Amino acid sequence: MLKTITSALNDFSHLFFPHTCIGCSNDVLEYDTVLCIKCYAQLPATGFMNTEGNPVEKIFYGRIPVQQAGSAFYFTKDSVIQRLMVELKYRGNKTAGYCLGKLLGMQLAETERFNSVDAIVPLPLNPKKERKRGYNQAAIIAEGIKTVWDRPVLDKAVCRKLFTETQTQKGRIERWQNMQDVFEVVDAIALEGKHILLVDDVVTTGASLEACAVPVLKVTGVTVSIATTAYTIL
Ligand SMILES: [Zn+2]
Question: Cα–Cα distance between 187 and 219 in angstroms, integer?
Fold first, then answer.
């Protein structure tokens, strides 16, 4: 299994050539991956992907109709998962994101629960943030998933509106209400009649995933499932 993961992750070797492991920073990597075999083995897998009624599904109970939901790993402080996230979100390390996506994709492929998914929609990022970062981390994760779990990535079908100055100055409750129309379907035809898998890096309260699912679910014949690389225990 570990050998498979290591060799699978080598596909991205042309993108990045680290010498040491992101997880332990001790091991010099035999292959051009971001983690050593020991750190892969220690990743805190949740087992949620093939479990009905798992904690991620429970987040959305009574809020939105979700077919299946799950996260691949627990997000804990000072963990390897947190380090990979930091690499992806703040250090411009796309390879870390492809790897996280690939690991999530392997879990999606190993269960039958997500078989009927037709396409992946990465949660859109605030356009201002995306310009600053240069990419949407959820889209990178989605591309990683696609390499091991063959589904098209529709990253232009839904967009996130840019907050205006006045909106960011509003109170908390008002901002929460505004969250409800932060996302907008811009290509309904691409989504029509499909089972969509919404993908994000982390799920905590599920507020943004819910806000994104609402307009998506309004498109004719659409059903929604949710997958994230990490799950934060509140
Ligand atoms: Zn390591």
Answer: 10
Residue-wise DSSP of 195-206: EEEEEEEEESS-
Q: Which structural domain, as residue segments, surrounds residue 22?
A: 1-42
- Tell me, yes or no, whether 18 and 101 share the same domain: no
CB-proximal residues (5 Å) to ion ligand 1: 21, 23-24, 27, 36, 39
Ligand 1 centre distance from Cα of residue 22 (Å): 6
Domain count, the chain: 2
Same domain, 95 and 122: yes
Q: How far is the CA of 198 from the centre of ligand 1 (A)?
A: 30
Single pTM value for the model: 0.86
Co-location of 66 and 34 in the same domain:
no
pLDDT digits (tens, 9 = 90+) for 121-159: 999 998 888 999 999 999 999 999 999 999 999 999 999
CA of 123 relative to ligand 1 center, distance in Å: 29
Q: What spacing in Å lies between the alpha carbon of 21 and ligand 1's midpoint?
A: 5
Task: Give 37 Cα–ligand 1 centroid separation in angstroms.
Answer: 7
Name beta bridge partners: 69. Answer: 226
Concatenate the DSSP letters of all residues of 102-119 into one string: HHHHHHHHH-STTTT--E
Residues 33 and 146 occupy one common structural domain: no
